[in-house]
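#help-structures
NK: newbie question, is this the right format to request a structure? protein is AraC-type DNA-binding protein
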Amino acid sequence: MYAERASLLDGAVVWHNEPGPGPAVPVLPDGCMDLLWTEGRLLVAGPDTHAQPPDGARAAWAGVRFPPGAAPAFFGVPAHELRDLRVDLSDVWPARRVRSLADRITDSPDRVAALEAVALRHAADAPPPDPLLRAVVEGLDAGGTVASTAAAVGLGARQLHRRSLDAFGYGPKTLARVLRLQRALALLRDGVPYAGAALAAGCSDQAHLAREMRDLTGLTLGRYAELTSGSWPANSDTPAPSGSRTTA
Protein backbone atom coordinates (compact mmCIF):
# COMPACT_ATOMS: atom_id res chain seq x y z
CA MET A 1 0.00 0.00 0.00
CA TYR A 2 1.36 3.37 -1.07
CA ALA A 3 0.55 6.65 0.70
CA GLU A 4 2.05 10.13 0.61
CA ARG A 5 1.63 13.55 2.18
CA ALA A 6 3.14 16.98 1.88
CA SER A 7 6.37 17.29 3.84
CA LEU A 8 7.33 20.00 6.29
CA LEU A 9 10.32 20.44 3.96
CA ASP A 10 9.32 23.07 1.42
CA GLY A 11 7.95 21.53 -1.78
CA ALA A 12 8.82 17.95 -0.82
CA VAL A 13 6.57 14.91 -0.39
CA VAL A 14 6.92 12.21 2.26
CA TRP A 15 5.76 8.75 1.22
CA HIS A 16 5.79 5.13 2.28
CA ASN A 17 5.04 1.87 0.54
CA GLU A 18 4.21 -1.37 2.35
CA PRO A 19 4.18 -4.83 0.76
CA GLY A 20 0.78 -5.89 -0.46
CA PRO A 21 -1.10 -7.91 -3.05
CA GLY A 22 -1.26 -7.00 -6.70
CA PRO A 23 1.35 -6.39 -9.38
CA ALA A 24 4.43 -4.30 -8.69
CA VAL A 25 4.30 -0.96 -10.51
CA PRO A 26 7.40 0.48 -12.22
CA VAL A 27 8.60 3.88 -11.02
CA LEU A 28 8.05 6.44 -13.78
CA PRO A 29 10.20 9.50 -14.50
CA ASP A 30 8.93 12.56 -12.62
CA GLY A 31 11.86 15.01 -12.58
CA CYS A 32 12.45 14.36 -8.87
CA MET A 33 15.10 12.81 -6.64
CA ASP A 34 14.40 10.90 -3.42
CA LEU A 35 16.01 10.11 -0.09
CA LEU A 36 15.04 6.49 0.59
CA TRP A 37 15.00 4.11 3.55
CA THR A 38 14.45 0.36 3.21
CA GLU A 39 15.49 -2.60 5.32
CA GLY A 40 17.94 -0.58 7.42
CA ARG A 41 19.59 1.16 4.45
CA LEU A 42 19.56 4.76 3.26
CA LEU A 43 19.74 5.37 -0.47
CA VAL A 44 19.50 8.15 -3.02
CA ALA A 45 17.28 7.82 -6.08
CA GLY A 46 18.59 9.94 -8.91
CA PRO A 47 16.48 11.53 -11.64
CA ASP A 48 15.10 9.01 -14.11
CA THR A 49 14.95 9.13 -17.90
CA HIS A 50 13.04 5.83 -18.12
CA ALA A 51 10.86 3.65 -15.92
CA GLN A 52 12.68 1.91 -13.09
CA PRO A 53 11.73 -1.66 -12.16
CA PRO A 54 10.15 -1.95 -8.71
CA ASP A 55 13.20 -3.46 -7.00
CA GLY A 56 12.43 -4.70 -3.51
CA ALA A 57 8.71 -4.26 -4.09
CA ARG A 58 7.97 -6.75 -1.31
CA ALA A 59 9.97 -4.73 1.23
CA ALA A 60 8.79 -1.69 3.18
CA TRP A 61 10.01 1.64 1.81
CA ALA A 62 9.93 5.21 3.09
CA GLY A 63 10.99 8.24 1.11
CA VAL A 64 11.31 11.99 0.92
CA ARG A 65 10.74 13.13 -2.65
CA PHE A 66 12.34 16.48 -3.46
CA PRO A 67 10.80 18.75 -6.08
CA PRO A 68 12.72 19.03 -9.36
CA GLY A 69 15.99 20.91 -8.89
CA ALA A 70 15.99 20.94 -5.07
CA ALA A 71 17.91 17.74 -4.25
CA PRO A 72 21.43 18.51 -5.62
CA ALA A 73 21.97 21.24 -3.03
CA PHE A 74 20.68 18.89 -0.32
CA PHE A 75 22.89 15.94 -1.30
CA GLY A 76 25.84 18.02 -2.49
CA VAL A 77 26.02 16.18 -5.83
CA PRO A 78 25.10 17.37 -9.35
CA ALA A 79 21.96 15.57 -10.47
CA HIS A 80 23.48 14.26 -13.70
CA GLU A 81 25.98 12.18 -11.68
CA LEU A 82 23.03 10.20 -10.24
CA ARG A 83 20.89 10.02 -13.38
CA ASP A 84 19.00 6.70 -13.58
CA LEU A 85 20.83 5.40 -10.49
CA ARG A 86 19.93 4.14 -7.01
CA VAL A 87 23.00 4.43 -4.78
CA ASP A 88 23.77 4.06 -1.10
CA LEU A 89 23.73 7.38 0.72
CA SER A 90 27.19 6.46 2.02
CA ASP A 91 28.45 6.95 -1.56
CA VAL A 92 27.49 10.61 -1.17
CA TRP A 93 27.83 11.34 2.57
CA PRO A 94 30.33 10.03 5.15
CA ALA A 95 29.65 6.34 5.82
CA ARG A 96 29.77 6.62 9.62
CA ARG A 97 27.17 9.35 9.64
CA VAL A 98 24.93 7.43 7.25
CA ARG A 99 25.09 4.30 9.44
CA SER A 100 24.09 6.33 12.47
CA LEU A 101 21.16 7.93 10.64
CA ALA A 102 20.00 4.61 9.19
CA ASP A 103 20.07 2.96 12.62
CA ARG A 104 18.11 5.84 14.13
CA ILE A 105 15.40 5.53 11.49
CA THR A 106 15.28 1.73 11.67
CA ASP A 107 14.85 1.82 15.45
CA SER A 108 12.13 4.46 15.31
CA PRO A 109 8.47 3.43 15.82
CA ASP A 110 7.59 5.88 13.01
CA ARG A 111 10.21 5.49 10.30
CA VAL A 112 8.52 7.91 7.93
CA ALA A 113 8.59 10.72 10.49
CA ALA A 114 12.16 9.82 11.45
CA LEU A 115 13.29 9.99 7.82
CA GLU A 116 11.57 13.34 7.38
CA ALA A 117 13.29 14.62 10.54
CA VAL A 118 16.67 13.63 9.09
CA ALA A 119 15.85 15.52 5.90
CA LEU A 120 14.71 18.61 7.78
CA ARG A 121 17.85 18.72 9.94
CA HIS A 122 20.20 18.36 6.99
CA ALA A 123 18.26 20.85 4.85
CA ALA A 124 18.66 23.47 7.57
CA ASP A 125 22.45 23.29 7.11
CA ALA A 126 22.52 22.78 3.32
CA PRO A 127 22.57 25.60 0.77
CA PRO A 128 19.06 26.59 -0.32
CA PRO A 129 17.89 25.59 -3.81
CA ASP A 130 18.46 28.22 -6.50
CA PRO A 131 15.17 30.13 -6.97
CA LEU A 132 16.00 30.47 -10.66
CA LEU A 133 15.64 26.70 -11.00
CA ARG A 134 12.17 26.81 -9.47
CA ALA A 135 11.23 29.41 -12.07
CA VAL A 136 12.52 27.10 -14.81
CA VAL A 137 10.36 24.23 -13.52
CA GLU A 138 7.31 26.46 -13.22
CA GLY A 139 7.78 27.79 -16.75
CA LEU A 140 8.19 24.37 -18.33
CA ASP A 141 5.40 22.83 -16.24
CA ALA A 142 3.08 25.58 -17.43
CA GLY A 143 3.74 24.45 -21.00
CA GLY A 144 6.33 27.06 -21.90
CA THR A 145 8.92 26.30 -24.54
CA VAL A 146 12.58 25.90 -23.64
CA ALA A 147 13.37 29.14 -25.50
CA SER A 148 10.66 31.16 -23.74
CA THR A 149 11.62 29.72 -20.35
CA ALA A 150 15.29 30.55 -20.90
CA ALA A 151 14.38 34.10 -21.86
CA ALA A 152 12.08 34.47 -18.86
CA VAL A 153 14.85 33.56 -16.41
CA GLY A 154 17.53 35.53 -18.24
CA LEU A 155 19.66 32.63 -19.46
CA GLY A 156 20.94 31.67 -22.87
CA ALA A 157 20.08 28.26 -24.26
CA ARG A 158 23.52 26.82 -23.47
CA GLN A 159 23.52 28.26 -19.96
CA LEU A 160 20.07 26.80 -19.29
CA HIS A 161 21.17 23.40 -20.56
CA ARG A 162 24.27 23.37 -18.36
CA ARG A 163 22.36 24.51 -15.29
CA SER A 164 19.64 21.94 -16.01
CA LEU A 165 22.12 19.05 -16.12
CA ASP A 166 23.36 19.96 -12.63
CA ALA A 167 19.89 20.63 -11.23
CA PHE A 168 17.62 18.10 -12.94
CA GLY A 169 20.00 15.49 -14.34
CA TYR A 170 19.13 16.19 -17.97
CA GLY A 171 18.40 19.06 -20.32
CA PRO A 172 15.32 21.29 -20.18
CA LYS A 173 13.70 19.60 -23.19
CA THR A 174 13.72 16.23 -21.42
CA LEU A 175 12.45 17.84 -18.21
CA ALA A 176 9.59 19.45 -20.16
CA ARG A 177 8.62 16.06 -21.63
CA VAL A 178 8.70 14.37 -18.21
CA LEU A 179 6.59 17.11 -16.61
CA ARG A 180 4.09 16.99 -19.48
CA LEU A 181 3.73 13.23 -19.12
CA GLN A 182 3.15 13.57 -15.39
CA ARG A 183 0.47 16.21 -16.03
CA ALA A 184 -1.28 13.83 -18.42
CA LEU A 185 -1.10 10.90 -16.00
CA ALA A 186 -2.57 13.04 -13.22
CA LEU A 187 -5.50 13.92 -15.47
CA LEU A 188 -6.01 10.29 -16.42
CA ARG A 189 -6.07 9.27 -12.76
CA ASP A 190 -8.80 11.87 -12.27
CA GLY A 191 -10.89 10.17 -14.95
CA VAL A 192 -10.20 12.50 -17.88
CA PRO A 193 -10.43 10.60 -21.22
CA TYR A 194 -7.19 9.89 -23.07
CA ALA A 195 -7.70 12.47 -25.81
CA GLY A 196 -8.74 15.20 -23.39
CA ALA A 197 -5.85 14.50 -21.04
CA ALA A 198 -3.39 14.59 -23.93
CA LEU A 199 -4.57 18.01 -25.14
CA ALA A 200 -4.86 19.50 -21.66
CA ALA A 201 -1.33 18.35 -20.78
CA GLY A 202 0.15 19.93 -23.90
CA CYS A 203 0.39 17.01 -26.34
CA SER A 204 -0.77 17.54 -29.91
CA ASP A 205 -3.16 14.58 -29.73
CA GLN A 206 -3.74 11.20 -28.11
CA ALA A 207 -1.23 9.46 -30.37
CA HIS A 208 1.45 11.95 -29.29
CA LEU A 209 0.77 11.13 -25.63
CA ALA A 210 0.90 7.40 -26.39
CA ARG A 211 4.33 7.81 -28.05
CA GLU A 212 5.66 9.85 -25.14
CA MET A 213 4.47 7.22 -22.68
CA ARG A 214 6.22 4.45 -24.60
CA ASP A 215 9.41 6.48 -25.15
CA LEU A 216 9.76 7.60 -21.53
CA THR A 217 8.51 4.50 -19.72
CA GLY A 218 8.41 1.49 -22.06
CA LEU A 219 4.74 1.07 -21.15
CA THR A 220 1.51 1.78 -22.97
CA LEU A 221 -1.11 3.89 -21.26
CA GLY A 222 -3.41 0.88 -21.14
CA ARG A 223 -0.79 -1.34 -19.53
CA TYR A 224 0.01 1.28 -16.89
CA ALA A 225 -3.70 1.57 -16.14
CA GLU A 226 -3.83 -2.20 -15.64
CA LEU A 227 -0.90 -2.05 -13.22
CA THR A 228 -2.51 0.74 -11.19
CA SER A 229 -6.28 1.00 -11.03
CA GLY A 230 -7.36 -0.54 -14.31
CA SER A 231 -10.00 2.19 -14.64
CA TRP A 232 -8.70 4.44 -17.39
CA PRO A 233 -9.99 2.62 -20.49
CA ALA A 234 -13.54 2.70 -19.09
CA ASN A 235 -13.23 6.48 -18.68
CA SER A 236 -11.90 7.03 -22.19
CA ASP A 237 -13.92 8.23 -25.16
CA THR A 238 -11.66 6.24 -27.47
CA PRO A 239 -9.90 2.87 -27.23
CA ALA A 240 -6.65 2.68 -25.33
CA PRO A 241 -3.65 3.38 -27.59
CA SER A 242 -1.99 0.30 -28.99
CA GLY A 243 1.72 -0.39 -29.00
CA SER A 244 4.50 -2.11 -27.14
CA ARG A 245 3.56 -3.83 -23.89
CA THR A 246 7.13 -3.88 -22.63
CA THR A 247 7.28 -3.46 -18.87
CA ALA A 248 10.47 -1.54 -18.24
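mod (FA): yep, format's fine, and the C-alpha coordinates are attached above. Residues 172-189 form the longest helix (18 residues).
NK: thank you!
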